[in-house]
Each structure stands twice: as structure tokens, then as C-alpha cells.
Amino acid sequence: MIYTVTFNPSLDYVISLDKLEKGQINRTRQEHIYPGGKGINVSVILSNLGYSSVALGFEAGFTGKTLREMLDQFGCQTDFIHLDEGMTRINVKINAGEETEINGQGPAIPERAVEELYGKLDALQAGDYLVLAGSIPDCLPSDMYERILERLEGRGIHYIVDATKDLLLNVLKYHPFLIKPNQHELGDMFGRTLTTEEEIIAHARLLQEMGARHVLVSMAGDGAILVPEDGEVIRERPPKGEVKNSVGAGDSMVAGFLAGYLGTGSCEKAFRLGQAAGSATAFDYWLADRASIVSLLGEPADSYGL
Ligand SMILES: Nc1ncnc2c1ncn2[C@@H]1O[C@H](COP(=O)(O)OP(=O)(O)O)[C@@H](O)[C@H]1O
Ligand SMILES: O=P(O)(O)OC[C@H]1O[C@](O)(COP(=O)(O)O)[C@@H](O)[C@@H]1O
């Protein structure tokens, strides 16, 4: 089974307007509300590609209730822990020529709720995949992911971690199956701006030396680079299309990679399905559906195990 964990889920309020004027009343052209949060997005895309997963995490208040209901409607299985105080955050995503995001703080997560999450994670089985994705609220220790992997060590679980800076660096010693920093996040980890492909590959390899297995570096409209555990580096440009809202493109890529890998065992196919899922999401207002992902593959879906 695949499990995703989102410590700080959201409702994403995605609005489009022609121009955003600071200090003025702006009116939207379009608005949508979607479930959000990195692990949840991974679960939604997996479900769109026919893979079941359980989305774990925390929810609170009326926004948390709506989040659950929306995920139910999308056929996504959840096992959230309810928090009695606060409310699930609303993250604002503004598309006005360029993309601007305002991500909320989220509710405080008490110790007993973290213990409850540990209880759920203790039930994972050897061979399961665990996706840890997204930020950790300020109220929790910044080594939360490390604590989880330390607890699960030696149980034969495959980890996928999509996080920034120390949250990611500190878990490399547990040999995650996949990590997916974007180009800027990879640079931030080393206090540098990475511009050339050679620099990106060299720094991805440094993360491998620290313990990561497959390192997938996403580069938005420039595509992605995979430094696999074994074999040649894969570098491809993404398909072309009109970008509507690239929020969730990275999460879609993680889900596509995992689905492709589980369906074929091939890193190359996994990379292609990841890239198609990321781009299909960028070309949509929300996370891509199966048909739009498959249409970008340019190959029969069954050759990807779909
Ligand atoms: N403008 C775009 N055009 C085509 N594909 C895109 C675009 N933006 C994102 N993608 C696809 O989605 C993947 C992940 O996007 P990226 O923005 O790098 O991730 P993140 O959301 O984690 O920052 C990219 O590697 C690419 O395959
Ligand atoms: O946990 P964080 O880092 O605050 O990010 C949460 C936001 O990231 C998203 O999951 C999108 O992530 P990506 O664009 O990186 O794929 C949104 O749905 C959500 O609002």
C-alpha cells in the first residue's frame, strides 16, 4: 500500500485575474477551491492514475471538514487525525501573468495528535511506500521527518521525501527511494544558485552520496533531470502547452514517477510518466486527470502499466 503524509494540508483558493494591483481592489476572472497540500496532491494523482493510497495527516475546523468531503468525492482514501482547535489553512494561489502564492500557517498540532500519527505509521508493512511531503508547521520540531524515519527504520518501507533544506537533508541517511527537489531547492540546500545542468547533476550526486537513491530534480518549464541509483542520467524537456496554474506540478511529478515505477520497474518510464503528470497539471487549473496525463505521454498507456 502507498501512504502519504501531509502535516499541513490546505484548501487551495486558486484565482485568475488579468493583472494584480497592490493596494487596490482587484476582481477575479475565475476562482476555484481545491484540496491542497503536497502529500494529498500525490494521493489525488495516484488515484487518477488508478493507484490506491491512504492520505494521512491532520485536519481541523470547517475547512478540514470540507477538505475531507472533497477528497471523498475524488475517490481518495483518507485517514486524517482531527484536531479540536484551529482550522485547516486556506492557501491563496494567484495567477495574474505570473504566479503568486500565499500559504497559511495552519493549526497547532498537539503532542497527542503526533502520537496518534505514530500509531498509524507503526501499522505499515514491509514493501509499503511512504510519501512525506510538504512543510511542517512551526509548532512542531523541525526534525519531524527524521523522527518518523528513525522510528520506522529497518522495517522494509520505501520512503519518498519531498521537502526543503534540513527537513530533507536530515533524512538522507535513511536512504529514501526518491527525493524530488526543484532546481532552486537543490541550490538552497548548498547555499548556491545552480544554473547549468552540470552543476545540477553534480549537486544531485552529492545528495546521493549522503544516502538518497533516485534524485529527481524538477526545473518547471525546463523539464527535469533524473540521477538514478544505477544507470545513466536522464534529461528531458517537458511537452509544450499553455500553463494555467503550475501549483501541484511537483507533487504530480512525484506521483507519476511512483506510478510509472510501480507499473514498469523502469526508471526511464517512471521519469516520463512523472514529467507528463507534472506538465499536465501545469496545463490545467488543478491537478491533471488520467486522460490529460496519458495524452502527453505519446505512447500507449498500457506500456506504463496504466
Ligand atoms: N511551464 C511548464 N511547462 C511544462 N511543464 C511544466 C511546467 N511547469 C512544470 N512542469 C512540469 O512539472 C514538473 C514539476 O514542476 P516544478 O515547478 O519544477 O515543481 P515544483 O512544483 O515542485 O516546484 C516539471 O519538471 C515539468 O515536468
Ligand atoms: O506545505 P507547503 O510547503 O506549505 O506547501 C503547500 C502547498 O503546496 C502545494 O501542495 C503545491 O505544491 P507544489 O506546487 O510544490 O507541487 C499546494 O497544494 C499547497 O498549497
Automatic annotation (TrEMBL):
Catalysis performed (reactions): beta-D-fructose 1-phosphate + ATP = beta-D-fructose 1,6-bisphosphate + ADP + H(+); D-tagatofuranose 6-phosphate + ATP = D-tagatofuranose 1,6-bisphosphate + ADP + H(+)
Organism: Faecalicatena fissicatena
UniProt keyword RNA-binding, yes or no: no
Classification via CDD domains: FruK_PfkB_like
Protein name: Tagatose-6-phosphate kinase
GO molecular function, one term: 1-phosphofructokinase activity
Record carries keyword ATP-binding: yes
NCBIfam families associated with the record: 1-PFK (TIGR03168), pfkB (TIGR03828)
Start and end residues of each Carbohydrate kinase PfkB domain: 7-282
Superkingdom: Bacteria
UniProt keyword annotations, A-Z: ATP-binding, Kinase, Lactose metabolism, Nucleotide-binding, Transferase
EC code: 2.7.1.144
InterPro entries: 1-PFruKinase, Carboh/pur_kinase_PfkB_CS, PfkB_dom, Ribokinase-like, Tagatose/fructose_Pkinase
Biological pathway: Carbohydrate metabolism; D-tagatose 6-phosphate degradation; D-glyceraldehyde 3-phosphate and glycerone phosphate from D-tagatose 6-phosphate: step 1/2
EC supergroup of this enzyme: transferase
Family: Belongs to the carbohydrate kinase pfkB family.
Pfam families, per database record: PfkB (PF00294)
Protein task: Catalyzes the ATP-dependent phosphorylation of fructose-l-phosphate to fructose-l,6-bisphosphate.
